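Hypothesis: this fold can be encoded by more than one sequence.
Test: take the structure tokens below, design a sequence, compare later.
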């Protein structure tokens, strides 16, 4: 596993680009940033207050989940989010035109309910996108979350999973027939079969929160994910500080730790000419790693 750069300010949302660079957000810095193949870091545009998940849309622009802001702890050389700032207003979905260097808000609410802490995003083949809203943490309270489906032109947004415990990472199976969501604090990986764009099939959970594919044990927390070409759900695992691969049948396939211990291993994406390069964010240490993967990653819609 090779370090591309170790100078980032809590990187997340990596997007492997065709030119070999990686776009990602720096949450603490409040920017969309590019890391070149040789590790050079350059700011593309500011996306205040706190950009999180990111994806390329059907129009070539970058769609960003902005969580609305964190307070931060820096201890023992590790940076981590710990709460919500006093000036927090709400979260949003932002759109970045890289060529123009412009940033605009696409959604700030759904049916009059403000977005709280949008976290991760994935586009489907129809050009719409699913995204998680993890909510916000306060001194004596914690939001419950939602999963939304929205159009990329700003014309439609609706909740497709209403009330879920801190949904974080989100992804689609290679054939687009299944939606995966990782719950942060319960450390559960859930799924829904998809009947049509933005329409989830009924599920077996009597509490209405999707089917459980895999439940992690001990002290684990889950973050974002990517899917490989074998259908494995490769989810960033907080606490242990690794990427865990779970098969679509719910079997533990592999656990891949980063070389320098970091509880805040938050994201993975696939890229390279053959899609066999995995880019992993070790956010607490500000590191972007690259490593070989045993198979090709699933190529995302609209990203090359």
């Amino acid at each position: 596993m090779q370090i591309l750069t170790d100078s980032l300010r809590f990187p997340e949302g990596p997007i492997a680009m065709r030119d070999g660079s990686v776009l990602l957000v720096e949450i603490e810095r409040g920017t969309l940033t590019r890391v070149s193949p040789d590790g050079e870091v350059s700011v593309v545009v500011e996306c205040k207050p706190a950009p999180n998940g990111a994806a390329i849309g059907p129009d070539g622009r970058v769609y960003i989940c902005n969580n609305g802001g964190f307070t931060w702890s820096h201890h023992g050389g590790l940076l981590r989010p710990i709460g919500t700032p006093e000036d927090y207003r709400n979260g949003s979905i932002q759109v970045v035109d890289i060529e123009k260097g412009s940033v605009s808000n696409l959604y700030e609410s759904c049916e009059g309910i403000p977005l709280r802490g949008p976290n991760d995003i994935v586009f489907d083949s129809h050009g719409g996108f699913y995204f998680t809203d993890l909510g916000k943490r306060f001194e004596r309270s914690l939001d419950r979350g939602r999963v939304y489906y929205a159009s990329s032109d700003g014309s439609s947004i609706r909740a497709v999973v209403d009330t879920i415990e801190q949904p974080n990472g989100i992804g689609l199976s290679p054939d687009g027939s299944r939606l995966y969501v990782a719950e942060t604090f319960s450390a559960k990986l859930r799924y829904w079969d998809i009947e049509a764009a933005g329409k989830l099939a009924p599920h077996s959970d009597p509490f209405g929160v999707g089917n459980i594919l895999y439940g992690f044990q001990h002290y684990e927390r889950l973050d974002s994910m990517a899917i490989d070409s074998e259908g494995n759900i490769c989810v960033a695992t907080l606490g242990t500080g690794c990427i865990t691969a779970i098969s679509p049948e719910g079997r533990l396939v592999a656990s891949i730790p980063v070389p320098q211990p970091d509880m805040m291993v938050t994201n993975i994406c696939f890229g390279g000419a053959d899609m066999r390069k995995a880019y992993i964010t070790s956010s607490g240490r500000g590191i972007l790693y690259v490593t070989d993967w045993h198979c090709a990653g699933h190529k995302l819609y609209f990203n090359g």
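The mean pLDDT is 95. The radius of gyration is 17 Å.
Hypothesis status: open.
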